[in-house]
Amino acid sequence: MKISFPRMGYSYIALKWLVENMGHECIVPPEPSKRTLDLGVRYAPEFACIPFKILMGTYLEVAEMGAEIILTSGGRGPCRAGYYWVMHNYLLQELGKDVRVVAFELPLDNLKDFWKKVHWIRKTGGLSVKEFIRVLKITWEKLKAIDDVEMRSHEIRPLEIHRGDTTRTLWKGLELLDQANTLEEIEEARREGLKMLESIPRDDSRNPLKIGIIGEIYVVLEPAANHYIQIMLGEMGVQTDRSIYLSAYTRKNTIINLEGDIFSKARPYLNEAPIGGHGVNSIGETVLYAQHGFDGVVQLAPFACIPEIVAKGILPSVSRDYGIPVLTLFIDEQTGKAGVQTRLEAFVDLLERRREQKAKMERLVI
Amino acid sequence: MARVGIPHTLAYFLYYPFWKTFFEALGHQVVVSSPTTREILDLGVEETVNDACIPIKIYHGHVASLIDKVDYMFCPRLVSVRLHGDFGSETFCPKFLGLPDLIRLTFTKAPPIIDTRIDLKKGKKELESICVEVGSRLGNSSQESQAACKKARQVHRQYLALLRQGTMPPEAMEILLNGAKPASREFPPDGLSIAVVGYPYAIYDPYINVGLLNMLAREKIKIYTQDMLSDKILNREARELPKSMFWYFSNRAVYGGLYYMKKANIDGIIHVTAFACGPDAMVDRLLEIEARRHNKPYLSISIDEHTGESGVRTRIEAFVDMLRYRRDKA
Q: Of A6, A335, B58, B86, which one is least surrounded by beta carbons within 10 A?
């Protein structure tokens, strides 16, 4: 079967490997472009959020490229994302496209359905159970390695001497990972990628500002949706930490890892969890970033995203209590790169001024 | 005795008789904000986070208008009103889930907020324990609260029965709480029937939908809404969909819409949706596609701060004309 999937950041490298090694043909979703968005905006409901529109466009593009099945995830709400696949199926049917969206719901909600779909994918690809598990394991390692390399790149970018070095090296590293087929090769590619990043000429005397990036998963993960905000900030000389990595659930060394912890941090502000999407997470993460000495937080959210609107209504109180500035960027199809850049520059200026003032106050105290 | 404020919007239209009876049985005074007006809307727009939808802004406006008049603000956290054992897993829109916190952090001078979590699917006795909790916040013993709860439930049952008979919520409340006589309405035998689906706070609030129901009534059109259908009928429609939505009010609107689409005596469907309502982006398109498949005329009316009466009237008149023409042709 010709299988495709939604594109989120660099995860497509691992997912492509997964689909190909399950014995199917993979239609790699193209990076969201102007055309993707135009297609999506034309056919999606007006007030659907931007991830819905971009995915709609992506699905239409992969349908043109011949995809028969699109694999995606379901969800139990109350964020709209869990209902995407139903609406996408309706819309694709109305347009007469010969492609079907198959969603994996949470195994907890419907175990039978989940197993049925997993077995169907495995059998049609002609894999034994043992091989199938091996393929899944390698994909997971690949996903983790991709995140490792990307994470390091965001720390190094603000220190680079020649602008653009880090981004170019990151791509080289990702290509190495793309070629890796076994656990050993992945480990080797990961080490090689990190080594290449370390060898970028850099100026360690800089003391970059630190900004945490929080918000809705799709616009946080997909650089094409958020106008490459992490690269943009990095090249302004700011170190960024992102709250969401697909492999983050198994990590202990990142600032944001355990969900329970986040919910308890958010409880004084929002006494209900979860409220869908990453609404509660955004509040808890802001608290965590403030406690870890970050200079500011940027909240990314699609226009009309319900959970993030609730978070936005509550964040001013968090910002006041913890003294951490928060910039909210609502992204929709009208958002331009220049607009985002101007606002980020102003925000970074503000953070720099705050840092100088704080330093001055400390000197006075001494 | 305390004065308890209840905003005249959102869940008011379905659950007011219950809570009014409950609080009054406990010996408290219930203060309801006035029906939505321009001032209330303006107050709300001023206070609310600017990306919120109209219903949430209006809710803030109602709360603002009540602040000086009450000792407690009744703003429960609606999580689920599905009864235990009903197998529905839906909850409310995230904005409803976060509403008490939004209110608390927006209005720092507000009186204490009763933000009891209402999650009825947790257990059979959940409603009683909720009532006891609310009562204890107001200083009532659990026996008193339980007795009040029992009384309120009875009233709620009568209220639902009135709605099922086709009475509109404002009229049903008058009948139930003030002993008004049901008004008799005459419909011409060949008149049109239209199903109006949408959220209770959108279809029954004449301010935000600029008197849509009255416009239809003046045309002598028989109006049906999803609240006139029993839970059993609505649940049956759920099986037609590949997956149910996650939001209680949205599901009711969708199921109601699907039910009326299949009825031969219904001439058309009107869906009332609020500007920037998240769930409605899905609901509206779903109903539109299904209406086309069922060959039923469908009109979607979107309401916001600037909705003008003449705009809506023009669209309704055109829709009704189209329905009449369609019927004559058939």
A: B86
Q: Verify that B102 and B15 share a domain, yes or no.
A: yes
In Å, what is the CA distance from A126 to each residue of A10, A14, A18, A23, A67? 27, 20, 14, 7, 19
Nearest to B98 among A80, A94, A275 (CB): A275
Number of independent structural domains in chain B: 2
Domains A2-127 and A208-365 are alike in CATH topology: yes
Q: Tell me, yes or no, whether B181 lies in a domain.
A: no
Strand order in the sheet with B113-114: B29-32, B3-6, B72-74, B113-114
B-chain residues near A270 (CB < 8 A): 98, 101
- Cβ contacts of A77 on chain B, cutoff 8 Å: 90-91, 245-247
- Give how far A154 is from chain B: nearest CA, Å: 31
Residue stretches of chain A with pLDDT short of 50: none
Q: Hey, are the CB atoms on B92 and A271 less than 8 Å from each other?
A: no
- For chain B, say whether A268 makes contact (Cβ under 8 Å): no
CA–CA distance, B9 with B16 (Å, rounded to integer): 10
Q: What is the DSSP letter of B28?
A: P
ipTM rounded to 2 decimals: 0.87
Q: Are residues B11 and B141 in the same domain?
A: yes
Return the closest-CA partner of residue B301 out of B167, B228, B229, B199.
B199
The model's pTM is: 0.90
pLDDT of residue B180: 83
Q: Could you tell me if B285 lies within 8 Å of chain A, comparing CB atoms?
A: yes
Residue of chain A nearest B101, judged by CA positions = A270
Quote the CA–CA distance of A363 and A76 in Å, as a whole number. 53
Crossing angle between the packed helical segments B12-25 and B169-178, to the nearest 10 degrees: 20
Reported as a single tens digit per residue, the pLDDT across B136-180 is: 999 999 999 999 999 999 999 999 999 998 889 999 999 998 888
pLDDT for A278: 85
| Residue that has been written with the tokens 């398109």 in this structure | B285
**CA distance to partner chain B, nearest, from residue A21 (Å):** 30
Among B327, B207, B321, smallest CA distance to B266 is for B327
**What residue of B is the nearest CA neighbor of A305?**
B278
Q: Specify which residues A328 forms β-bridges with.
A: A299
Q: Which residues 228-247 of B are in CB contact (within 8 Å) with A? A: 241-243, 245-247
Contacts of B236 (CB under 8 A, 6+ apart): none
Distance from CA of A62 to the nearest CA of B (A): 23
Residues B208 and B172 both lie in one domain: no
- Could you tell me the residue ranges of all domains in chain A? 2-127, 143-204, 208-365
**Structural fold of domain A208-365:** Rossmann fold (3.40.50)
Domain A2-127 has CATH 3.40.50: yes
Contacts of B73 by beta carbon, 8 Å cutoff, 6+ apart? B4, B5, B63, B66, B67, B103, B110, B111, B112, B113, B114
Domain end marker among B148, B176, B204 = B176
Same domain, B196 and B258: yes
Cβ within 8 Å, pair B242-A87: no
Residues in chain B with pLDDT values less than 50: none
**What is the domain extent for residue B252?**
188-329
B137 in a structural domain: yes
Q: Are residues B171 and B237 in the same domain?
A: no
Identify the bridge partners of residue A346 per DSSP, sorted by sequence position. none
Give dist(CA A304, CA A334) in Å, integer. 13
Residue that finishes a domain, picked among B134, B153, B176: B176
- Which of A48, A77, A330 is nearest residue B91 as measured by Cβ atoms? A77
